[in-house]
């Protein structure tokens, strides 16, 4: 009860501060729309898809997963600014739940990601994507898990390194292989065998496969439950670890 | 109200390749009574902030124990948090929120309900003369206004003890006087106030009791008057035209000089038993040795003199 209340309190505050920055809305929507408009036309021939709808069914879930990963991974910068301002220390002298300090923030990130995802889905629908609403909601759940995980990781790492200068290269180093090996932009079915072998070890490639199956309307596909479970497990670990970092002494 | 025993903390920090341990706090024993303004005086790096951060549950002590308002620091930090307030040296407000938002949020983090939190925020804004700026973003505040918000935040939940880390650093003299009044008002309400400061006059005027800290240890403790009384006699400040070192050689041998320090190129600090009686003798001795005086001053020992005799350094210099 106290925990839920605390989480809601932190979430409200963070959400309010976010919507006060209209720049965020602009950047958050502009980027994916560019991908959709400028990149997608190349897809149909490249993927040898039979229709625009099919091309979008492959591309859009990948794009959404990409946004979830990146949107989350770079949240740590905001936290470093809060650390510097003394806001985190001020929170830590109160009896507020440490898990709530993390979750309130991460849930804000999840909500803003889902808002982005809805806008992109609507646009893609206008361009000819078709998807079942039930499958779509399940895909959003998957995205929410990813965003929760990556933002929690980012917050945890921010608390450990405590400086933007260290966080930026670290996040890029994590993001790059994750991106290249997850088959996000193009499916790995084109990749040589050894590359696919490595990709199997990339948890996000499971997530992408799951999301693609959902957008394809293939709810019974093993990739769906596998993707969801892999993400759920890693998210739990990431959240537990990051909440501990909030509880530990930081300066 | 506060009782600590053997509180210790050392930090491991990297210096180039080698790791070095800094003993920031080495065994602090303190007793602070309820309703007292207790001052922590010491130069940069003495370990004041580290001690406060330990007492405020922000860092775990390496050793020792503490009891705050009846709650044990080690076994029950959650209860300690409920009973204390803490105002950090570096501030605690977020640029993009308003003072009112910060106060309401902070009250709510202590589990206070929404309506009650709003009322408390309103009262705090009034008490700290912030009503006028309450709904402006914190980034638009002056340093003094911002500091007042910090302190209002620290006491929004009516703690039994409040820790204020350098509450007046960076304030102009008028704001500083205001802040002293605020702090005295907290005491009048029965709160125990624990402040740190670099200012001797502040410690002297504001604090009921003080502890002088140096290199992680408490070197003296008592009321300002007690501490000054420990240094018997008076202080004579002499500035000569020429080298203070040479003048020191002359005065060292005078029997009535109990202690002597050179404070800079040409300044001397003499501790004597009775300034009024000994000053003429000092003048005579210097005159005989051929030193021309540029000034001579007599005063009662200050806290700086206490610091000087306890640590061998002046607080002003360090
Ligand atoms: N997180 C840390 N890591 C490493 N060393 C630290 C850390 N925090 C403090 N120290 C060191 O511990 C010592 C005591 O620092 P502290 O901040 O307690 O001093 P202070 O008395 O508050 O000084 P000031 O008057 O400058 O605020 C200093 O030498 C400082 O460099
Ligand atoms: Mg300090």
From TrEMBL, chain A:
The answer on whether this UniProt entry bears the keyword Nucleotide-binding reads no
Membrane topology summary: Multi-pass membrane protein
Where located? Cell membrane; Membrane
Residue ranges annotated as coiled coil are none
TM segments?
A: 23-43, 55-81, 110-133, 139-161, 173-195, 223-243
What are the ABC transmembrane type-2 domain coordinates in residue numbering? 23-249
Which keywords does this Swiss-Prot/TrEMBL entry list? Antibiotic resistance, Cell membrane, Membrane, Transmembrane, Transmembrane helix, Transport
**What superkingdom does the record give?**
Bacteria
Q: Does the keyword rRNA-binding apply?
A: no
Name the InterPro entries for this protein: ABC2_TM, ABC2_TM_bact-type, ABC_2_transport, T7SS_ABC-Transporter
Q: Name one Pfam family in it.
A: ABC2_membrane
Q: Which family does it belong to?
A: Belongs to the ABC-2 integral membrane protein family.
Identification of the protein by name: Transport permease protein
Automatic annotation (TrEMBL), chain B:
Q: Where is the ABC transporter domain?
A: 2-240
Which PROSITE patterns has this protein been placed in? ABC_TRANSPORTER_1, ABC_TRANSPORTER_2
Q: Which UniProt keywords apply?
A: ATP-binding, Nucleotide-binding, Transport
Name listed for the protein in its UniProt record: ATP-binding cassette domain-containing protein
Instruction: Please provide, alphabetically and separated by semicolons, the GO molecular function terms listed in this UniProt record.
Output: ATP binding
Q: What NCBIfam families has UniProt attached to this entry?
A: drrA
Membrane topology, as annotated: Peripheral membrane protein
Family to which this protein belongs: Belongs to the ABC transporter superfamily. Drug exporter-1 (DrugE1) (TC 3.A.1.105) family.
Predominant location: membrane
Q: Where found, per UniProt?
A: Cell membrane
Q: Which organism is it from?
A: Plantactinospora alkalitolerans
């Amino acid at each position: 009860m106290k925990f839920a209340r605390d989480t809601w309190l932190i979430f409200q505050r963070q959400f309010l501060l976010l919507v006060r920055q209209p720049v965020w809305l602009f950047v958050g929507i502009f980027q994916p729309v560019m991908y959709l408009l400028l990149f997608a036309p190349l897809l149909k021939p490249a993927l040898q898809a039979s229709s625009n709808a099919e091309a979008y069914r492959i591309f859009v879930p990948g794009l959404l997963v990409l946004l979830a990963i990146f949107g989350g991974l770079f949240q740590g910068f905001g936290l470093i600014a809060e650390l510097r301002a003394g806001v985190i220390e001020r929170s830590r002298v109160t009896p507020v739940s440490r898990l709530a300090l993390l979750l309130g923030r991460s849930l804000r990130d999840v909500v803003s990601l889902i808002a982005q995802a809805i806008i992109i889905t609507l646009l893609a629908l206008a361009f000819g994507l078709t998807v079942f609403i039930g499958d779509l909601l399940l895909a959003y759940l998957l995205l929410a898990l990813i965003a929760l995980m990556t933002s929690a990781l980012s917050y945890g790492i921010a608390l450990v390194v405590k400086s933007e200068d260290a966080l930026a290269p670290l996040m890029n180093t994590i993001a790059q292989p994750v991106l290249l090996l997850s088959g996000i932009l193009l499916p790995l079915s084109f990749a040589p065998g050894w590359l696919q072998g490595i990709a199997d070890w990339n948890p996000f490639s499971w997530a992408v496969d799951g999301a693609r199956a959902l957008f394809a309307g293939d709810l019974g596909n093993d990739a769906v439950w596998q993707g969801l479970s892999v993400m759920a497990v890693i998210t739990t670990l990431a959240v537990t670890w990051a909440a501990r970092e909030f509880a530990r002494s930081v300066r | 109200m506060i009782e600590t025993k053997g509180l210790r903390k050392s930090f491991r920090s990297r210096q180039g390749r080698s790791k070095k341990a800094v003993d920031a706090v080495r065994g602090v024993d303190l007793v602070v009574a309820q309703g007292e303004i207790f001052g922590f005086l010491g130069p940069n790096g003495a370990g004041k902030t580290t001690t406060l951060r330990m007492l405020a549950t922000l860092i775990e002590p390496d050793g020792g124990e503490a009891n705050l308002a009846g709650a044990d620091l080690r076994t029950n930090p959650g209860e300690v948090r409920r009973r204390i307030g803490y105002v950090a040296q570096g501030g605690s407000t977020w640029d993009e929120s308003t003072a009112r938002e910060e106060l309401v949020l902070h009250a709510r983090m202590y589990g206070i309900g929404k309506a009650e939190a709003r009322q408390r925020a309103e009262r705090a804004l009034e008490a700290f003369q912030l009503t006028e700026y309450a709904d402006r973003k914190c980034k638009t505040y002056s340093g003094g206004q911002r500091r007042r918000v910090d302190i209002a935040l620290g006491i929004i939940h009516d703690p039994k003890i409040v820790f204020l880390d350098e509450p007046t650093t960076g304030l102009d003299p008028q704001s500083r006087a205001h802040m002293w009044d605020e702090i005295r008002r907290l005491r009048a309400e029965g709160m125990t106030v624990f402040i740190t400061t670099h200012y001797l006059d502040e410690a002297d005027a504001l604090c009921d009791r003080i502890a002088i800290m140096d290199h992680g240890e408490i070197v003296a403790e008592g009321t300002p008057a007690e501490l000054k009384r420990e240094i018997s006699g008076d202080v004579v400040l002499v500035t000569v035209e020429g080298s203070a070192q040479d003048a020191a050689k002359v005065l060292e041998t005078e029997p009535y000089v109990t202690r002597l320090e050179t404070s800079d190129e040409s300044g001397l600090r003499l501790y004597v038993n009775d300034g009024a009686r000994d000053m003429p003798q000092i003048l005579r001795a210097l005159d005989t040795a051929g030193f021309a005086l540029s000034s001579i001053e007599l005063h009662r020992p200050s806290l700086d003199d206490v610091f000087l005799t306890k640590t061998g350094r002046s607080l002003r210099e360090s």
